[in-house]
Amino acid sequence: MRSRVLASAALVAVAATVVGLPAANASHQVSFVQVVQKEFTLTLSRPAVQRGTVSVELVNFGMDAHDLIVLKKAPGAKPIAFKRLDPKGRADRTLKLTPGRYSLWCSIADHRSRGMRATLVVR
Ligand SMILES: [Cu+2]
What we know:
By secondary structure, this protein is α+β, with helices and mostly antiparallel strands. The chain is built from 2 helices and 9 strands; from the N terminus they run H-E-E-E-E-E-E-E-E-H-E. The chain has one domain (29-122): Sandwich (Immunoglobulin-like), CATH 2.60.40.
């Protein structure tokens, strides 16, 4: 009798977990994007991520120092600045991003116009 009660309790727990999964995934999902810097390119590991918590890994595979600015293409948007990275440097930042299109670029000298720019879509 006791084991039957325990089994029922376990079943309820499993059912609750299964039912709860989709909602939990939707609200706590973490998107990941890697941004690779070189002379003179800025390459994203994917063109689009899901809204919410976005984990950004910035890596400098070039031979010069580079930085990164992330700015939503919307009036009044505030830029997010990553610190300058030396060659072989790496930085991880967790951002909260709302849906839209974001411009990414290196703000050092003329790197942006030479090609260190990209667009990230947040869905
Ligand atoms: Cu640069």
